[in-house]
Amino acid sequence: xxxxxxxxxxxxxxxxxxxxxxxxxxxxxxxxxxxGANSANAEGWALYAEQLATEHGWYEGxxxxxxxxxxxxxxxxQRLVADTGLHAxxxxxQQAIDYGIPPHEVDRYTVIPGQACSxxxxxxxxxxxxxxARAALGDRFDLKQFHNTVLRAGVVPLSVLETIxxxxxxxxxxxxxxxx
Length: 180
Known about the structure:
Layout: H1 2-8, H2 13-22, H3 28-31, H4 40-55, H5 63-88, H6 93-98, H7 103-111, H8 115-137, H9 143-152, H10 158-177
């Protein structure tokens, strides 16, 4: 349940979406997520939030919680295979169910091709951007500022998010480049 809480609540979807809705300086179409709620950005953030919990020791001393987190990771790997199997390998619904995916999940992947993959693609992009910022900024890298930057962007395409992070990196480095 803790993993689900990190994904759906804090620091996951609820936190991300509540913050977006409160930002009056963000254009309304972005506050209202006109480009979709099941994007690689929104779901990627939620998976990234789950990983933050692991990275920062939030499961320390909680073996059942850690096992739940590992079980969620295993399920995510299974559904990547099932989503790909259904759409690229022409699996039947029953083959995906036999692979271990509940029928209601198989139905979701059938009508939303690539949705399961979008979660992982988004998470990997958040991790890539964080590593890029950390490498570029060195000691000036601030995880909280990175999170503020990606969250305050709203739910945008990943290419737009990368541009926003690149701009943040450049702005953060700019004072160091100015002569004293």
